Amino acid sequence: MSLLSLENLATAYDTPHGRFRALEGVSFSVAQGETVGLVGESGCGKSTLGKTLMRLVPSDEGSIRLDGDEITTAQGRDLMPVRRKLQMIFQDPFASLNPRHSIRRILTGPLKIHGVASRAERNRIAEEIVSRVGLPPDALDRYPHEFSGGQRQRIGIARALILRPQMIVCDEPVSALDLSIQAQIINLLAELKREYGLSYLFISHDLSVVRYFTDRVLVMYLGRIVESGPTREVWDNPRHPYTRALIDALPDAGNPREVAPLSGDLPGVQNLPGGCRFHPRCPHATDLCRKVEPLIPENGDAHAFACHHPLPLTA
Amino acid sequence: MSAVLAVENLSVAFGPARPVERVSFHVNPRETLAIVGESGSGKSLTALSMMGLLPRNARASGQILIRTPRGRVDMLALPERRRRLLRGKQIAMVFQEPMTSLNPVHTIGRQIEETLIAHEDLDRAARRARVRELMNLVRIPDAARRIDDYPHQLSGGMRQRVMIAMAVACRPRILIADEATTALDVTIQAQILQLLDNLRRELDVAVVLITHDLGVVSQWADRVVVMYAGLHVEEATPAQLFADPLHPYSHGLLAASPRNAEGLTYRDAPLAEIPGSIASARAEAGCPFRPRCPAAREVCGAVVPPPVAYRGDRLVACHFPGILTEEARHVAAFA
After folding, report:
1. What does R_g of chain B's alpha carbons equal in angstroms?
2. Cβ of A179 under 8 Å from any chain B Cβ?
3. d(CA A291, CA A276)
4. B206-211 vs B32-36, strand pairing mode
5. For residue B195, is pLDDT > 60?
6. Assigned CATH topology for domain B5-226
């Protein structure tokens, strides 16, 4: 049974120019111990999806089920059990850590709120987690500004882990880090996953990280999932022209310089084109694409795509 | 073929801290030179030095020789009044975040025009025509209408095109792009890099890409300078660097990249890590990479290795050049 499942989820924001749907018709599930990647460009709704899951922004329609429980409208006290199961790691660990709280307070705070054990026990758990994520023991009595970017992300991971959740939503967890530190953090996330049997929803714009770190991938464009499936399969044989373009845009030593980049800008959900959302930038668009929006078929965890004219199967 | 720009023994100091130390390299006409390094490597300070734009409290030594029609001049030795004549005309720069470098209360047309007012003797009509020409050159669609737009009306990619139009308005010989595509989405990033490369050929300008992205380097650079903790640690072509990194830091960076995982995933093998962080560098004597280097020996803690020529056209600052690459090859051979 899947740990997390979303059905037909939509999230809308009110703006001075009206109400816009940042997410529409999003359905997928994450199994226990699985890492699912979510890729797309800025404004595609991938961070909104993370926030909707965490119940940080309300959803418009559809349902979210976590470990069998409906959490779509959970609020206030009802969120307590949700937080114990589902946590989040943010892109900028500095902005997500209170600068006036010591690491001890940041880590023991959630335990206190959830009524875990005595003060001594809470301290013991914090000490254990600090050493597990590779921070020095004296870290507990220091403050966030005393740490480098990589170490702050370790603190962010420790904070997410302290309640022993079953699943963590990672929103661009390594994008702000230097390459030499990125590998350390990814390896740490992989080890923790093995040890605690965690599931991850791994939100990233970096396809090479997603290819390495995820079992399945969801590709998002302007609020809709346009392709999904096992990472290797999608990578080796993308069927949606947008996925192909994302992979081709990745600078790669093997690629010749002259691959024509995708033309045009992301229009944004405020002025969605009719028909297929991708058609103004698509090299294969036809009249059908301008009129009818293709929807991604329900296909379980297998490879699926939302395109009238999918790219051919290569192998 | 003589260099359009030569950096010689550049050091930058803020009080006792020396974030750039004795860096030398040159830029050939019409080439793309990449300077790679992580935060704290000194790459952005090097770029600012080239522009003569270091903050007031910085002390720079060494030379930045720029070729002009009237001979070579040293940017660092010039008074501000003469530096200003070089900027825009000989050397120009595009920054990472176009929104903070554009003035939000002026139209983009006016901002591009300003560069022309500073350097060229044109009347208003001729300037406006030239602005439209420049907007076409950087592929801003519908230039006649866009010319009166304000920066907030444009997307990130379009704003970066405006910055590039401003930078190339007076036909500089050198264009520095400091992480100019880092804040952009991958598909837009590819468009901007393609644009820079087209301009390089069309306008006969040398491009200096300051970046932390090895993928960008592999695809777009003719030569690469690798910096670590303020030092120039390696120089090579991308092909040489990627096939045969000589400095243990370069080797570690390439190995740590998930791009080089060759289709392996986290379930197969962990990524190769470089232990520690750049913050530990330069605190002690010797090679700045020593605290993180798996191949460090006694001499590395005592003597800073200077960059020396290696097999003709390459440069490396290491007591044991190529040691990790050799080791990896031996391991692979026996595996």
Report:
1. 21
2. yes
3. 7
4. parallel
5. yes
6. Rossmann fold (3.40.50)
Q: In what order do the strands lie in the sheet with A2-15?
A: A18-31, A2-15, A61-66, A69-70
Residues of B in contact with A208 (CB under 8 A): 215, 257-259, 261
Q: Which residues of B touch A190 (CB under 8 A)?
A: 266, 270
d(CA B270, CA A172): 19
Task: Determine whether the interchain pair B185/A42 forms a contact, defined as Cβ–Cβ distance below 8 Å.
Answer: yes
Question: By the 8 A CB rule, do B165 and B112 touch?
Answer: yes
Q: Which of A9, A21, A20 is nearest to A201 (CA)?
A: A9
Query: What per-residue confidence (pLDDT) applies to B281?
Result: 59
Looking at residue B223, its amino acid is: R
HSE-CB for B57 with a 13 A CA cutoff: 5
Q: Computed from CA positions of residues A276, A281, A285, A286, in that sequence, does the dihedral angle turn out positive or negative?
A: positive
With b meaning 16 or more CB within 10 Å and e meaning fewer, what string describes A272-288? bbebbbbbebbeebeee
How far is CA A35 from its chain centroid? 10
Give yes or no for A187 touching B (CB within 8 A). Answer: yes
User: Considering only CA atoms, which of B178, B179, B158 is closest in space to residue B112?
Assistant: B158
Q: Which two tokens stand for residue B155?
A: 């997307």
pLDDT digits (tens, 9 = 90+) for A121-164: 999 999 999 999 999 989 999 999 999 888 999 999 999 999 99
How many H helices and E strands in chain A? Answer: 10, 11
Cα A195 to chain centroid, rounded: 21
Q: pLDDT under 70 in chain A at which residues?
A: 251-261, 268-269, 315
Q: Is A35 on the interface with B (CB under 8 A)?
A: yes
Nearest to B258 among A193, A212, A248 (CB): A212
- Residues in chain A within 8 Å Cβ distance of B263: 232
Chain B neighbors of A151, CB-CB under 8 A: 277
Q: How confident is the model at residue B40 (pLDDT cuts 50, 70, 90)?
A: confident
Q: Please report, as a single letter, which amino acid is at residue B89.
A: K
Question: How confident is the model over B98-111, as pLDDT tens digits?
Answer: 778 899 999 999 99
pLDDT reported for residue A300: 79
Query: CB-side exposure of B333: number of CA atoms within 13 Å?
Result: 6
What does the H/E/C string look like for B282-327? CCCCCCCCHHHCCCCCHHHHCCCCCCEEECCCEEECCCCCCHHHHH
Distant-in-sequence, close-in-space partners of A181: CB < 8 Å, separation ≥ 6: A148, A149, A150, A153, A174, B38, B277
Q: Are B227 and B212 in contact (CB under 8 A)?
A: no
Nearest-angstrom CA–CA distance, B86 and A172 = 40
Length of chain B: 335
What are the residue boundaries of the structural domains of chain B, listed by start? 5-226, 244-334
If you write DSSP's letter for every residue of A44-58 in order, what string do you get? SSHHHHHHHHTTSS-
Provide the CA A33 distance to its chain's centre, in angstroms: 15
Q: Would you state the pLDDT for residue A259? A: 55
Tell me which residue has tokens 């909707």: A52
Beta bridge partners of B175: B92, B207
Distance from CA of B204 to the nearest CA of A (A): 19
pLDDT at A260: 61
Strand partners, A224: A221
